[in-house]
């Protein structure tokens, strides 16, 4: 044994050839935490002192190679002063440089995921052999930072500046074919051939068949482009990066600029440039939000897995109500491997549901993501039916009929008679109380909410709603089913609107009040899209369906009359009364025409503008900042109320729910991180400016207390 540690070992495989194996003790994956980084330095020193060493093979003892840095540790590092952070980054880079400078050739066998620091480890090797099941990449920009272990230095010198800018600025995972084509790896082989192929390459390098020293010269000296070539490459590349990233995400363009600045430098100088940009990005609010979201996502996923442990086996599912939503649920279930029955009361509904599933599958086939045979297999695992035949074999049944309490109760009560006593019923209601719906059932303990978001195949979130009598076993089974469907479930307690819709409707109420006070919905849409929302509130209402929103708003007003009941006729009510329902019938706040691809194209409509004018009761001067404040304050305060009332488990669920459920801008991190970044005291002061607008704008006592104590939602 050359070196033995808790994260890696080094030993001779055969005479002259050592294996450096990453195998982090007590963890299912390898990652670059403090111990791994320290031990890599120690192991490298031990290898360098071996007089008989001829070559090093780098491997992993886990199913993955190295997933990246341990973000839970690195967030503490990010709080250090610039000088301390620079010292740490410099020491870390020294470790990678020392490994790269070993006096013998090095080959890495990439057996699985190699991302971030994991791929930077691969880049520090002379040659890279990749399993056909592995993925590589530098996704740091998705955390609001650029690579910090030499990625912006080595990758442009390995695959060229143009390719490197796209790899790093997008942060995309690279599959074997793309990695090989761009030159990020030297070979791709079957998993079972990985070690033998890597050893063969290493022995060839030892024998002088492959010039490993030339590889090192390329990685440690300036990029081989003249000034004009560099200018053309980076000018074009930065323009593309800026266009794709947008103005709210500084990491991609900063990483591109780092590569541009370091292109004409040697390795030591270039690493200093990378560290400069790394520290700059660590200090941005976007990095804080994105890293926080990453940690929240891990926490939410861990909680879901915890719930699902007691979920038992789910072999067969069923959905009640075909249509677009039912068809989407059936597609997602079948596509992810759980066969599903799809029941409706009419052939037309079943045809619509099957058409929806078929359309989604055909799109995958046309894009090369699925074979025609696989499509056929998935479609065959969806069984349409006008009866309850086979429902006695279903483990989970999801009701997805019209959003009407009496209709839902009738359907649920009838269905309960045709299923096993241990089967679970779930309602895909978006606003109606689960406790209320359960009143129609003989086994309310076997019933909960399972709120999907539209379109089902694209939206990752599922709210699993616990009614007053819902059992833990029911929650466990439905959470497990959501995970089997490839969704991220959050468990919420019952209340009108549950979580996402409950906080969305105060946002819409803020919009109605802005129009009442003289706002232009076109400007409001533009401002909120500039804030980072995927679409402005007027456009969002059109997409959701103004009729759907109107009926949901009635439920919310009944549930929370002191805050959500209007004392004026809002523009959305006028739209509903005029039967302007949005995209579904072609007219709402905007008029919709089909574009060349058959998709609805948004156009201005004079009648809508006139209707909005008729809803105005005053003409207040509204700045962009005022619009953002008046839209965001109600949503944020209602989110805090959900935490205070125990509707949600914790702030991580709250922020992830908004990001995955309504597309809250990721670079802001969610409603509670938005408050944190502003400061709770500053948020309360902002809300107090608009206290005359009513209870939706009045901070909770908990917020006041947090402001007084200097507290935050996230540490």
TrEMBL record:
| Record has Lipid metabolism as a keyword | yes
Q: Which domain of life is it from?
A: Bacteria
Kindly state which keywords UniProt assigns to this record, in alphabetical order: Fatty acid metabolism, Isomerase, Lipid degradation, Lipid metabolism, Lyase, Multifunctional enzyme, NAD, Oxidoreductase
Q: Which terms in the GO cellular component ontology are assigned?
A: fatty acid beta-oxidation multienzyme complex
What InterPro entries is this protein classified in?
3-OHacyl-CoA_DH_CS, 3-OHacyl-CoA_DH_NAD-bd, 3HC_DH_C, 6-PGluconate_DH-like_C_sf, ClpP/crotonase-like_dom_sf, Enoyl-CoA_hydra/iso, FA_oxidation_alpha_subunit, FadB
> Any one Gene Ontology biological process term?
fatty acid beta-oxidation
Q: What is its EC number?
A: 4.2.1.17
**What range(s) does the 3-hydroxyacyl-CoA dehydrogenase C-terminal domain occupy?**
497-592
An example Pfam family from this entry, by short name, is: 3HCDH
Among Gene3D superfamilies, the record links this protein to: 1.10.1040.50, 2-enoyl-CoA Hydratase, Chain A, domain 1 (3.90.226.10), NAD(P)-binding Rossmann-like Domain (3.40.50.720)
Q: GO terms for molecular function, please? A: 3-hydroxybutyryl-CoA epimerase activity; delta(3)-delta(2)-enoyl-CoA isomerase activity; enoyl-CoA hydratase activity; long-chain (3S)-3-hydroxyacyl-CoA dehydrogenase (NAD+) activity; NAD+ binding
* Top class in the EC scheme: lyase
Q: Which reaction does it catalyse?
A: a (3S)-3-hydroxyacyl-CoA + NAD(+) = a 3-oxoacyl-CoA + NADH + H(+)
Domain spans labelled 3-hydroxyacyl-CoA dehydrogenase NAD binding: 317-495
Metabolic or biological pathway, per its Swiss-Prot or TrEMBL entry: Lipid metabolism; fatty acid beta-oxidation
According to its UniProt record, which protein family does this protein belong to?
In the central section; belongs to the 3-hydroxyacyl-CoA dehydrogenase family. In the N-terminal section; belongs to the enoyl-CoA hydratase/isomerase family.
Give the protein's recorded name: enoyl-CoA hydratase
Species of origin: Zhongshania aliphaticivorans
Chain's gene name = fadB_3
């Amino acid at each position: 044994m050359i070196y033995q540690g808790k994260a890696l070992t080094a030993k001779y495989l055969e005479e002259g050839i050592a294996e450096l194996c990453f195998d982090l003790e007590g963890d299912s994956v390898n990652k670059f935490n403090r111990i791994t980084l320290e031990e890599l330095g120690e192991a490298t020193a031990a290898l360098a002192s071996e007089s008989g060493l001829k070559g090093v093979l780098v491997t992993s003892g886990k199913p993955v190679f190295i997933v990246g840095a341990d973000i839970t540790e690195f967030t503490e590092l990010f709080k250090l002063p610039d000088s301390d952070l620079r010292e740490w980054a410099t020491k870390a880079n020294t470790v990678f440089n020392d490994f790269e400078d070993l006096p013998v050739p090095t080959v890495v066998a990439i057996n699985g995921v190699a991302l971030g620091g994991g791929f930077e480890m691969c880049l520090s090797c002379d040659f890279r052999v990749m399993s056909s099941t592995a993925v590589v990449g530098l996704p740091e920009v998705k955390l609001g930072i650029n690579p910090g272990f030499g990625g912006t230095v080595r990758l442009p010198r390995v695959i060229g500046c143009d390719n490197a800018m796209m790899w790093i600025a997008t942060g995309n995972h690279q599959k074997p074919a793309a990695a090989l084509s761009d030159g990020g790896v030297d070979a791709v082989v079957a998993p079972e051939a990985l070690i033998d192929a890597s050893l063969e390459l290493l022995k060839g390098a030892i024998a002088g068949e492959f010039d490993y020293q030339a590889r090192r010269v390329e990685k440690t000296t300036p990029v081989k482009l003249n000034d004009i070539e560099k200018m053309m490459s980076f000018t074009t590349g930065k323009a593309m990066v800026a266009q794709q990233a947008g103005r709210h995400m500084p990491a991609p363009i900063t990483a591109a600029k780092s590569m541009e600045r370091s292109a004409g430098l040697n390795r030591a100088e270039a690493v200093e440039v990378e560290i400069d940009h790394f520290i700059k990005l660590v200090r941005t609010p976007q990095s804080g939000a994105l890293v926080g979201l990453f940690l929240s996502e891990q926490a939410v996923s861990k909680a879901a897995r915890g719930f699902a442990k007691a979920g038992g086996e789910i072999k067969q599912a069923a959905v009640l109500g075909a249509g677009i939503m039912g068809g989407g649920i059936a597609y997602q279930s079948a596509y992810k491997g759980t066969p599903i029955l799809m029941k409706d009361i009419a052939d037309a509904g079943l045809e619509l549901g099957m058409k929806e599933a078929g359309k989604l599958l055909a799109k995958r086939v046309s894009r090369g993501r699925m074979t025609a045979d696989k499509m056929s297999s998935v479609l065959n695992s969806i069984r349409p039916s006008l009866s309850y035949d086979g429902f006695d074999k279903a483990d989970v049944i999801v009701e997805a009929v019209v959003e009407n309490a009496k209709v839902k109760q009738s359907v649920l009560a009838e269905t309960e008679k045709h299923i096993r006593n241990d089967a679970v019923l779930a309602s895909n209601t978006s606003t109606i109380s689960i406790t209320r719906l359960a009143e129609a059932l003989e086994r309310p303990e076997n019933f909960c909410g399972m709120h999907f978001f539209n379109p089902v195949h694209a939206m990752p979130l599922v709210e699993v709603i616990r009614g007053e009598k819902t059992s833990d076993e029911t929650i466990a089974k439905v959470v497990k089913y959501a995970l089997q469907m490839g969704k991220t479930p959050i468990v919420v307690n019952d209340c009108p609107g549950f979580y996402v819709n409950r906080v969305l409707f105060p946002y819409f109420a803020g919009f109605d009040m802005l129009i009442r006070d003289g706002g232009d919905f076109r400007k409001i849409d533009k401002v909120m899209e500039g804030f980072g929302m995927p679409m402005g509130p007027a456009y969002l209402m059109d997409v959701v369906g103004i009729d759907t929103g109107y009926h949901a708003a009635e439920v919310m007003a009944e549930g929370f009359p002191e805050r959500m009941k209007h004392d004026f006729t809002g523009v959305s009510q006028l739209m509903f009364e005029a039967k302007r329902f949005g995209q579904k019938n072609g007219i709402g706040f905007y008029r919709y025409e089909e574009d060349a691809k058959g998709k609805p194209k948004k156009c201005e409509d004079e009648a809508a503008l006139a209707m909005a004018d008729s809803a105005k009761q005053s003409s207040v001067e509204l700045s962009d900042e005022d619009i953002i404040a008046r839209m965001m304050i109600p949503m944020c305060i209602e989110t805090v109320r959900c935490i205070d009332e125990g509707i949600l488990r914790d702030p991580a669920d709250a922020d992830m729910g908004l990001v995955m459920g309504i597309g809250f801008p990721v670079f802001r991190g969610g409603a509670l991180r938005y408050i944190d970044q502003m400061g709770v005291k500053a948020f309360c002061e902002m809300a107090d400016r608009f206290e005359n607008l009513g209870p939706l704008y009045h901070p909770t006592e908990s917020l006041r207390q947090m402001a007084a104590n200097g507290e935050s939602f996230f540490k």
